[in-house]
Design goal:
The structure is a single chain. This protein has helices at residues 2-22, 25-33, 132-144, 169-180, and strands at 39-44, 47-54, 57-64, 80-86, 91-98, 108-113, 116-123, 126-128, 147-152, 160-165. The chain has 4 helices and 10 strands.
């Protein structure tokens, strides 16, 4: 009987020893499968530029917060605009607004950049252009503009207008263009 117990004890010691020897390798293995963190490229004015070396391909984006938020419908920290490049998908200049509230169903938003208006469609709490050509035209207008105002209609309440200061936008877009190899 004692022989069997010693045999199991010896196997247990060997198993624990093998586990103990393998433990230092676990963090190394985990690091290889962990995606690289998003890296801040810089900031300019109210705009921040980032690159994400995601497993499916690099993603570069600019994020900005408005200088004036229609506070009756949204918290200022919930409202922002972004422009994104995904070169592995052959996508550049994707314009997106996070409204900070749910938009009224089947409603459109209007983006006004120094008097030039662009139609946007809404879905839940976001607004986008309808196609890549409009995305490109919006980004060009944003780089040349001083202010951009998005007007949208919430599910409940009066229409909103959030205004973005475009100072620094061009420099931030140049950072992501360089990081993702986008030519203008």
């Amino acid at each position: 009987m004692q022989y069997g117990l010693s045999r199991y004890a010896a196997l247990a010691v060997l198993a624990l020893g093998a586990v103990a020897m393998a433990l230092p390798a676990v963090p190394v293995l985990a690091q290889k499968n962990t995606p690289a963190p998003v890296k801040k490229l810089g900031e300019s004015g109210a705009w921040e530029a980032y690159v994400d070396d995601a497993p499916g391909g690099k993603i570069c984006f600019v994020i900005g917060k408005p200088k004036k938020v229609d506070a009756a419908h949204a918290k200022p920290d919930d409202v922002r605009m972004s422009v994104t490049h995904r070169p592995s998908d052959k996508v550049a200049n994707v314009v997106n607004f996070i409204l900070g509230y749910r938009a009224k169903g089947n409603s459109d938003a209007v983006l006004d950049i120094d008097g030039k208006k662009f139609p946007l469609f809404t879905d839940k709490d976001g607004a986008w252009t309808r196609d890549a050509a409009t995305d490109r035209a919006v980004v060009i207008a944003l780089t040349r503009g001083r202010d951009a105002t998005i007007k949208a209609e919430p599910e409940r309440g009066k229409p909103t207008a959030d205004t973005y200061d475009l100072s620094g936008f061009t420099a931030a877009v140049q950072m992501i263009d360089k990081a993702c190899g986008v030519k203008r």
